[in-house]
Every structure is written in structure tokens, then in C-alpha cells.
Design a protein that fits this description.
It is built from eleven helices and no strands. It has 256 residues and is mainly alpha-helical. The chain has two domains: 86 residues; 164 residues, Tetracycline Repressor, domain 2 (Orthogonal Bundle). α4 runs parallel beside α7 and α7 packs across α8. The chain is elongated.
Length: 256
């Protein structure tokens, strides 16, 4: 009887051990699959970033006579045509994704700075100030955002425009700007900034003083008193340089 119990216990331990080994083998296989899945996902992400970087480089350098085409992107990325089409169905799709991500980054930059501002005039100033300063520091960025309709009627465009409209109305209620149509004021603010970015990209380099002067003129066009415009623009610039360098790496590069 003792032998029988011993045999039963041995069978139980053998079964448990076998079950444990199966579970361990399954876990090992699962971990191996998870690792391969992550590796493949990371590889796809790197290739997508590579293609988008090539798209940025090519589109930033295009001209009216020499518009960007898929072959240019393939050559810049050093990949096959088949590889490109694994990720994007057309060059327009790649441009749209790149434009959307850059627009999201700009919205996040402006939003992160605006959160620390309570003066409505500062909030109106920070958008064009950041855009112009970024274009002056990174002309490739400026060339792309000024050539693509990234402020169209999509989610990012509406979010950006709604923020501009809200800041303009708040500044008007505060008595620091004066206009009869907030829509026209937003068109002026956005359109003039885009045109200034295009001028910077086409060789009309603009240093920080030029950026500040242009932004002051924008505020004057919106009806802000001259003394207030000069003071507010320079204070906003100092605020950016003193408190937001970590969140704005391109601005850090400009200051070094």
C-alpha cells in the first residue's frame, strides 16, 4: 500500500513536472513571439520614419518646374519602389501623413507654451512667433509647412484655427486688439505668417530681431497699441527662451 501511495505521488509529481515544462515551453515560445513581433514592429516604424524623412527632404527642395515625384523619394530613402508602396499608396498619402504629424507637433508646441500664459495678447503672439522662429532655424521645416496646405479643413487645421479664433476673441474682450471680423483677423494672422515663412525659406533669412519686428507689425495690424505690441512681443520671446527650451529643441539650438 505504501508502494502504491509512493507510485501515485511519483505519478503526480511527474505529471506536474511535465505540465510545468509545457507551460514554461509555452511561455518561452510566447516571449519569443512577442520579441519577434516587437522587432518587426520596430523595423516597420523605422522604415516608415525613413520614408517620411525622405519625403520631407524631397518636398522641401521641390520647385514649380521640378515638383517632387515618388522616384525622388525612393532615391533619397535608398529603397525599392515596392518598399515604398508597402507603406504608402501614393506620394500624396505620404505628404498628408507627414504634414499631419508636423501640424500636430506645432499645435502641441503652441499649446504647451500657451498653458503658462494668462495674458490674452501673449497667446495671440506665441503662434506666429514660434512659427517664424522655427522656420528661421530650420528652413527644411519651413519649406515643407509653407508649401503644403497643412491648415486645410481637416482635424488639425480646425483645431489650430479654433485656437487662433479663441485667442483673438479673448484679446478683443480684454481690449488689447481691435477688429470688426474675427475671421478676417485670423486670416490675416495665419496668412501673413505663412507668407513670411515662405520668404525666409526662399533666401530672405530672418534673425531673431527680424522675427520680433514682423510679429510686432502683425500685432499693430490687429489694432494693438504700438507700445503694448513692442513690450508684449519682446516679453513673450523672453518667456520662450527662459522657460521652454526643453520643450523646443530647435530654439535651444538657436540660442547656443
Amino acid at each position: 500500500m505504501t508502494k502504491a501511495r509512493d507510485s501515485e505521488q511519483q505519478d503526480t509529481w511527474t505529471s506536474a513536472n511535465a505540465s510545468s515544462q509545457v507551460e514554461m515551453a509555452g511561455a518561452s515560445t510566447s516571449q519569443s513571439e512577442d520579441f519577434r513581433t516587437r522587432l518587426a514592429r520596430d523595423k516597420r516604424a523605422r522604415m516608415r520614419e525613413r520614408l517620411l524623412a525622405a519625403t520631407l527632404a524631397v518636398c522641401s527642395a521641390e520647385t514649380v518646374r521640378n515638383p517632387a515625384v515618388i522616384d525622388d523619394v525612393i532615391k533619397a530613402a535608398d529603397v525599392s519602389r515596392g518598399t515604398f508602396y508597402k507603406y504608402f499608396s501614393s506620394l500624396d498619402e505620404a505628404i498628408a501623413e507627414l504634414g499631419g504629424s508636423m501640424m500636430q507637433a506645432l499645435i502641441q508646441e503652441v499649446a504647451s507654451v500657451r498653458r503658462a500664459m494668462t495674458d490674452p495678447s501673449d497667446r495671440v503672439i506665441v503662434g506666429p512667433l514660434l512659427s517664424l522662429a522655427h522656420a528661421a532655424q530650420d528652413t527644411q521645416w519651413g519649406a515643407f509647412v509653407s508649401s503644403i496646405n497643412h491648415l486645410g479643413d481637416d482635424v488639425n487645421g480646425r483645431v489650430f484655427r479654433d485656437a487662433v479664433l479663441g485667442d483673438l476673441l479673448a484679446a478683443q474682450r480684454d481690449g488689447v486688439v481691435n477688429f470688426s471680423s474675427v475671421e478676417a483677423a485670423a486670416d490675416l494672422l495665419i496668412g501673413a505668417t505663412q507668407q513670411a515663412v515662405r520668404r525666409i525659406v526662399k533666401g530672405g533669412s530672418m534673425d531673431s530681431e527680424g522675427v520680433l519686428s514682423f510679429t510686432v507689425m502683425l500685432m499693430l495690424a490687429l489694432g494693438m497699441p504700438a507700445r503694448k505690441a513692442h513690450r508684449a512681443v519682446h516679453q513673450t520671446w523672453e518667456h520662450l527662451c527662459e522657460r521652454h527650451l526643453d520643450a523646443l529643441p530647435w530654439l535651444q539650438a538657436d540660442r547656443e
